[in-house]
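Quick entry between incubations.
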Amino acid sequence: MTDPDFNLLVALDILLAEESVAGAARRAGLSASAMSRTLTRLREVTGDPLLVRAGRKMVLTPHAQDLKARTQNVVSEMRSVLNNSAAPLHLPTLEQTFYSAYQRGICRNFWPALICACAAQAPGVKLNFVAKSEKGPQFLRDGNVDLEIGVLKNMGPEIRLQALFRDRFVGVLAPTHPLAQGGQITPERYAACEHVIVSRHGMVRGPVG
DNA sequence: GCACGCTCCGAGTGCTGTGA
DNA sequence: TCACAGCACTCGGAGCGTGC
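Done. Structure below.
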């Protein structure tokens, strides 16, 4: 039995992510025709069309939808195995550009310290800060971003998370406010008050209720 | 509003060159 | 010799402008 061509996995990963032969070709540094032939080979190997025309666009078949997450994980694991160099990381000579996604209002506090630390310990490193328009780990999975700073959760097992700090809310109220009367402010008393919710994501309920 | 034609874009394919 | 990639081309769909 001959092993399949594992290079096809990388192409499959890009095709499933881009949902476009032309887009996948650009990302892989190939011509569209070369990527089209690669897709043909993938169709032969998997026995599934994988990407089918829907008007002017291409859409994933149900089988391709099933393969998408598995392929991402396998390719990510392959890369981590192959990139696991035995040579220790040497920051003073490291020449690399890192892209960092940020959520407005959260990580600007970290920029000065981060830039100073890079300049001192890794002068060859360049930092590009990219405003992030949507939540989710897709930017990291696609490799468009190396680092994200913000309120992160449900990122998946392949994304490494590290807590930088814990925040807390501080309430300010007038001496005449009902909460200021009657002793200790409990969560129940706080929740019983009327609230105004401001949500960037259209949520009509918050942690309070 | 509708039909028609033009243009653009993307996928697929035949042919050919290249390297192992 | 074979596999792969690029060039050139065709085909099909969408968008847009124009005339009725």
